[in-house]
Amino acid sequence: MAKEVLLVDGYNIIHAWPELKIMAMEDHLDNARTRLLEILSDYQGYKKNEIIVVFDAYKAKNTVRSIDAYHNIHVIYTKEHETADHYIEKVATEYARDYQIRVATSDALEQTIIMARGAARMSARELLIDIKATKKEYKSDYLEKPTGTTNRLEGHLNKETLEWMEKFRRQR
């Protein structure tokens, strides 16, 4: 199965998610961006897919495209006169043959374009629902994991390893 790449239209998601939209409307766009990156970084840790978040610099003057890392995800700031949509379309087209591409945006036109280019679409709402469900699933798995009642090594090993160690011990 091909490696999954999730392309995220950063500002589209910020303006679609209530928590982030409030931050952005209160002139805390930097905080909203950082919060989005934190959420997606956690999500990547659960899913183990590649995540690329794209932010417009379309109206910014004299900007060049920059590629940064935020923990375990990639962050792209587009160059002057380049929209996030345009960058996402280009990447989706180039990598659709070799990777399983999903694009997270609620822009209906963008969804249509990327699906025509071989990528799957995911709305901002669907992404948020998946993030919450994934986090809940992993949290419950972690909480339900049995822990040893003592601090002894055998309380933390699986049955096969214990049997191998016992066999090794008896051979001496």
Throw out a few tags for this protein.
alpha/beta, six-stranded mixed beta sheet, 51% helix
Report on this structure.
By secondary structure, this protein is α/β, with parallel strands linked by helices. The protein has 7 helices and 6 strands. The protein has helices spanning 10-14, 18-25, 29-47, 84-95, 108-116, 124-144, 159-171; strands spanning 4-9, 50-55, 66-70, 73-77, 100-104, 120-122. Strands 3-4-2-1-5-6 form a 6-stranded mixed sheet, sandwiched between helices. Strand 5, helix 5 and strand 6 (120-122) form a beta-alpha-beta unit. Helix 2 (18-25) packs antiparallel against helix 3 and helix 3 (29-47) crosses helix 6 (124-144). It is elongated, with a radius of gyration of 22 Å. 28% of the residues are buried.
